[in-house]
Amino acid sequence: MQLYSPSVKVANQVGVGGMISGSVFGDHDKVEGKVIRHPNCSQNGPLNISIEGVFEYVSVKEDLDDGSAQGPKTSKYKHIFLSSSAVIPVSLLLDPLSVVCDMFRVP
């Protein structure tokens, strides 16, 4: 699956060992992409595509009320701002020799 975004952000990711890139979408952008099926795949039936857009972050809270020297407490949070799915019928009867490419759009 390939997703298309209007812009890409590159950031240093701690624990990954370098820079990573991520798709960036605005409030009015459309999520678009394509699914490519290998020509040797001989399966017919529905293809279920699910997309979830999330924003993950870590919150650090200094625990000043506690007398222990445990250090700051961290909590991981996940905000889901997009959740969508589509079902695309796949059939070899349409064109058995070509790669099946289906476009999808999420408003």
Name a few traits of the molecule.
two-stranded antiparallel sheet; three-stranded antiparallel sheet; 107 residues; mainly beta
The profile of the biggest β sheet is:
3 strands, antiparallel
Which outline best applies?
elongated
Number of H/I helices: 0
Mean pLDDT: 75
Distance between the amino and carboxyl termini: 18 Å
Q: Into which percentage range does the β-strand content fall?
A: over 45%
Question: How would you characterize this protein structure?
Answer:
The protein has strands at 2-4, 7-13, 18-24, 31-36, 45-61, 73-90, 101-106. The protein is elongated. It is mainly beta and 107 residues long. It contains no helices and 7 strands. The protein has one domain (2-106). The strands form 3 sheets. Strands 1-4-7 form a 3-stranded antiparallel beta sheet, with no helix packed on it. Strands 2-3 form a two-stranded antiparallel ribbon. Strands 5-6 form a two-stranded antiparallel ribbon.
Short description:
With 107 residues, the protein is an all-beta fold.
SSE layout:
Layout: E1 2-4, E2 7-13, E3 18-24, E4 31-36, E5 45-61, E6 73-90, E7 101-106
